[in-house]
Specification:
Layout (H helix, E strand, L loop, with lengths): L2 H20 L4 H10 L4 H22 L1 H4 L3 H24 L9 H23 L12 H16 L4 H12 L4 H26 L4 H22 L4 H19 L1
Helix pairs in contact: 1-2, 1-3, 1-10, 2-3, 3-9, 3-10, 5-7, 5-9, 6-8, 6-11, 7-8, 7-9, 8-9
Length: 250
């Protein structure tokens, strides 16, 4: 890679790490860039998945204050994401490219609608008698996280938006706490998929390591400043990134 390409890939990694920490869909910066640099879709996706893991982990660490009293609960949720990530990585390795990509815009669009409606849904749910506790490990929640984990292990762009929508519907928590949980689950699915892709030998190590270095910086910065956003502004950012994601993938 030329010096210019190295700089561009690192900067894209910074942007992806920051976006993933605050919202999700950071891979929509790095994955197309790797394709433009001549890497095959399989190698680009696998290398990108590995590259964004450090940013996802540091983004989750940046939300440790919001996660302080949720450790055991989030760990249980992460099991569903890990299983889904393993399943998605397996599908990516055995199925033809583009199978999931055909439905990605629809899934992200639905997630954005759910994000917008989440305050109303949560308010009505809280008013119902015998409402489910906010941290209940319901089968519906675990199944949805498993499905999103499959998607994240397969491709990953938009995984964060989907997680925010699902967690917002099932958990009656402040949005910043939900965002912290989202970061842990996305990091889990990505890490499991990255291990599978590494074992399969689909990693281009130079761009993967450059993205990793950039995403580590971006994830740290995104967590630092994303935690200060108001819930209303954060929802606007989520929807805006979702719309851009749909346009890029359509």
């Amino acid at each position: 890679m030329s010096p210019l390409h190295i700089v561009v890939v690192v900067l894209a990694g910074v942007g992806a790490g920051a976006i993933n920490s605050i919202v999700g869909s950071g891979s929509l910066l790095t994955f197309p860039l790797l394709l433009a640099l001549g890497y095959s879709p399989v190698v680009a996706n696998a290398s990108n998945t590995l590259g964004v893991v450090p940013g996802a982990v540091l983004g989750a660490y940046g939300y440790r204050a919001e996660l302080k009293d949720q450790g055991p609960f989030v760990a249980r949720l992460a099991v569903a994401s890990a299983l889904g990530g393993a399943g998605g990585a397996t599908l990516f390795l055995v199925l033809a490219p583009g199978v999931f990509k055909a439905v990605v815009p629809i899934l992200i669009g639905l997630a954005c609608v759910l994000i917008v409606l989440q305050p109303l849904i949560a308010k009505r749910a809280a008013a119902r008698p015998g409402d489910t506790p906010s941290r209940s490990l319901s089968p519906g929640l675990l199944f949805c996280l498993f499905l999103v984990g499959i998607y994240g292990g397969y491709f990953g762009g938009g995984q964060g938006i989907m997680l925010l929508a699902i967690l917002g519907l099932f958990l009656h928590e402040p949005l910043q706490k939900v965002n912290g949980t989202k970061n842990v689950l996305a990091a889990t699915a990505n890490a499991v998929a990255a291990i599978a892709f590494t074992i399969a030998g689909h990693i281009a190590w130079e761009p993967a390591l450059l993205i990793a270095a950039g995403s580590a910086v971006g994830g740290t910065l995104g967590a630092r400043y994303g935690r200060k956003l108001s819930p209303q502004l954060l929802r606007c950012v989520i929807v805006a990134v979702g719309v851009v994601t749909i346009v890029r993938l359509s």
